[in-house]
Amino acid sequence: MARMFGFIGNRADLGARVLELHTGALTVRPRPGEPLGWGIGFYQSGEVLLRRRPIDDRPVIEMAEAAQGLRTDVLVGHVRRATVGGLRTENTHPFRYRSWLFAQTGTVQGFERLRDRLLDSLPEFLRRNVRGDTDSEIFFHLFLSFLHDAGQLNDGTVPTEHVAQALRSSIALVDRLSAEEGHGENSGDTLVTNGEQMLALHRNGGMAYRVLRGRYDIEELLGAESRMHLRIPAIESTHFTLIASELETIPAGWSPVESPSIVTMSRTDDPVVEPI
Q1: In the β-sheet with 3-9, what is the strand arrangement from edge to edge?
Q2: What is the pLDDT of residue 220?
Q3: What stretches of the chain adopt beta strand conformation (E)?
Q4: Who wins on pLDDT, 247 or 35?
Q5: Which of 54, 14, 10 is nearest to 197 (CA)?
Q6: DSSP-based three-state secondary structure for 245
Q7: How far is the C-alpha of 20 from the C-alpha of 129, rounded, in Å?
Q8: How many domains are there within the chain?
Q9: 238-275 tens-digit pLDDT
Q10: For residue 235, what is the DSSP state?
């Protein structure tokens, strides 16, 4: 099973600790003889950075290790079991365009016949940016094209409703084209962020989130070092939301996400869940 996850918060110095605290939920064990690929995307010192490993044949993949030592308050991670496109860097999530990061689970039904139609629907400047072979990367650029149509692609601050509507428009178009090829409705989950907000589109099983806020949660986050940090200014206002998809079981203290829905997350507020 693949795994997709992300967090957004307001303390870059604690971002890596969020993943360390939840290592169990972010650990993936491949099937024997089946290498997986993984990647993380994050924001650090004003830059959008990627770490991607298209093939990892270890018997256990602990994604908290990939982010060890990072100082970031927004991160997207993905463990990939290849269904469309080979195990190479260009096909490894997350994908990036300017300040946007994107990851996805699931497969677009009938993609082999739909690929050219989806590419043709993109503006030329976005079509040129597609590097790999996956349905997910094209879906990402379809999402970007709807933001472009709304005049929001180049704005530093994009209203949440425009991001959500671009996701809705993307799945509506892809579902319609799949139906024309005789397939049913697509499933799978999507995670997208521009570093200021994070949205998850949920149409599959096993998505949940955990909110960490206030002294009690932050002391848990800090662990044995908590006593050294009790006087840190604004510890009470520290806030993180961690979300993960393709979970076999929902960990204690996490909130399951009903399907289908869109989850909106920010640096300082609890998630908002609404129907697609």
Answers
A1: 47-56, 36-44, 74-80, 3-9, 239-245, 208-213, 255-256
A2: 85
A3: 3-9, 27-28, 36-44, 47-56, 61-62, 74-80, 95-97, 100-104, 188-193, 198-203, 208-213, 239-245, 255-256, 261-265, 272-275
A4: 247
A5: 10
A6: strand
A7: 34
A8: 1
A9: 999 999 999 999 999 999 999 999 999 999 999 999 99
A10: G
Q: How many CB atoms lie within 10 A of CB 146?
A: 20
- pTM here is 0.94
User: Which token pair is 110?
Assistant: 């009938």
Residue 85 CB partners (closer than 8 Å, separation 6+): 91, 132, 133, 134
- Residue 267 tokens read as 């640096």
pLDDT tens per residue across span 61-96: 999 999 999 999 999 999 998 777 678 999 999 999
Q: What is the domain extent for residue 52? A: 3-275
Show the DSSP H helices in the chain as ranges.
15-21, 63-66, 111-120, 124-127, 135-149, 160-180, 214-222
Q: How confident is the model at residue 139 (pLDDT cuts 50, 70, 90)?
A: very high
CA dist list (Å): 275 to 84, 205, 225, 272: 28, 15, 40, 10
Q: Which two tokens stand for residue 70?
A: 């990072």
Q: What is the CA radius of gyration of the chain?
A: 18
CATH of the domain at 238: 3.60.20.10
pLDDT in tens, 98-121: 999 999 998 888 899 999 999 999
